[in-house]
Amino acid sequence: MKKAILVVSFGTTYEDARKVTIDIIEEKIKRTFIDYDIRRAFTSHVILKVLKNRDNIYIDTPEEALEKLKNEGYDEVIVQPLHVIPGVEFDYVNNVVNKYKECNAFESIVVGRPLICFKGEEAGVPDDYTIMVDVLSKQLPKDDTVILMGHGTNHIANAVYCCFESVLRDRGFNNVHVATVEGYPTLDRVIPNVMAEQTREVTLMPLLLVAGDHVKNDMVGESEHSCKNILEAEGFKVKLYLHGLGENSDVQDIYIQHINDVINETFDNVGKTPKGI
Question: Is 243 designated active site?
Fold first, then answer.
């Protein structure tokens, strides 16, 4: 059988950020699953267009990558998203995969889950939230107040951010707050909670796979609307942690485990957005 793992990312236009995150994760997947060929796709058509026009770099969309695998006679395909939450991009990936399922293009095609998806409360259901808290606890400053900056979305999966903060509280991380760039909680919503701690120092840390555009501009950019400048205008001393989640080797291993979960079929809902987050 010809087997492939299609690693699907949102993508980034920043080569330096890509090399230490997406590239490294794909290489780790390649070393781990030696019986599979590894392919790449990005879901952001805007990023794909920039890379094509600016750098003459051509990267497949999920549709293009799966069409190539079909035409090359692959039998088994695992699609592993590197997205953080099961939001719009994850729905996009599943919708594309479902089209190939419907026409029986492959003997088997399945989708792994993104980084934070299931909150397991029973045997056999993964607890992605607790796993992520355990992983992040190794990079969180012990005594500092931290604001984790996520992307945010108008998708129902935006609830992941509030749930993740609740799990942080359950685990005793009362000094860690979650804010988003394009969803809820907003930074304005988080600032009063930080002030209530009676601290004037905060560490900004990405809850994003890649320290790309959102980090370099929305989080720490020169604009008065960047998170850093908003916090400084409120009187905070801001420390910066400018590393995407994908640089964390333990986060990389989570994606490896999600692929193993698909291969081992350890639970029934692989490849499906959960009804409750």
Answer: no
